[in-house]
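dumping the sequnces here before i forget
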Amino acid sequence: MQATLDLARESGYARLSMEAVAARAGVGKHTVYRRWPSKGLLFLDSLLSQNEPDLGYPDTGDVMADLRSQIHAAVDLLGGPPWGPLYRALLGEAQHDPTVAAGLNERFIRPQADRTVARLRTAREQGQLSSDFDLDLAMAVLSGPLYFQLLITQEPLTHDYVDRVLDALFAGMAPRP
Amino acid sequence: MQATLDLARESGYARLSMEAVAARAGVGKHTVYRRWPSKGLLFLDSLLSQNEPDLGYPDTGDVMADLRSQIHAAVDLLGGPPWGPLYRALLGEAQHDPTVAAGLNERFIRPQADRTVARLRTAREQGQLSSDFDLDLAMAVLSGPLYFQLLITQEPLTHDYVDRVLDALFAGMAPRP
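..and the predicted 3d for all of it:
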């Protein structure tokens, strides 16, 4: 799996092949295919297992500060090299290969969503969030604007950007009474 | 370009090739390559020119209603077959091919962002939006959660989902005073 990441970093995901990974790892092609049925799944496994980032939430009692520090950590990890381009390539592959999308959701997105909801539920109980904020939307609302920047506009994902997004989400779009 | 879309719908973007498009269109391969340097750009052009959806905003004087009807139109177009899977494939390709990402932003995302900001600016002037809502974030905040659903969780993009997102964005996450 290290060979996969090394090759992807050197020449990009598009040029990655099972054959090249096998050659770099010094094993036969069939050994690779036995374990991973596709390039996408090999890449998913390589990314998730080499890189076990702690993207959990602190609980300092201040939900805004805790969200901010977690999102800064996520941006530091996924917003730039080396992981940013590889993560983007993985998300690109997930649009073509449903097994990659399913694996990514099961192993990364859903556990992350569960942690987000848990932290926000505590905050809601403590009166730090609106009592009718829909927790099922938490992940989409909080991380959607980050993915929009990462995948669509592909502009730099900075601390300043996510701070402004958090402020806007907390304040809401409606005029204050 | 019709041949490109027909083939992509029949067998998926991953299996699409310049050769197959040329054969289906009854022209030589070089004719295709002369006009489009890559499969991604051919696909982008085919999608954007065959399909000129009106994703503009009405202005009924009620910004919430206007946003809702525009987003419903976008979801109807991009949330399901036939365009949904093709648009997802295009966004997938944009993660691997920077020329596709640049073309998509220039020809679709940025004009759409400009229209969104224009409609929201009017609403802000009319007191229907918070006076300090950051218009530069409008596109990311409003459409980020939709792209999250379309590209990441890949769960169905429904009117109900976008209605709930709009309500959450308007109300904000912070507790009401």
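Residues 34 and 80 of chain B are 33 Å apart (CA to CA).
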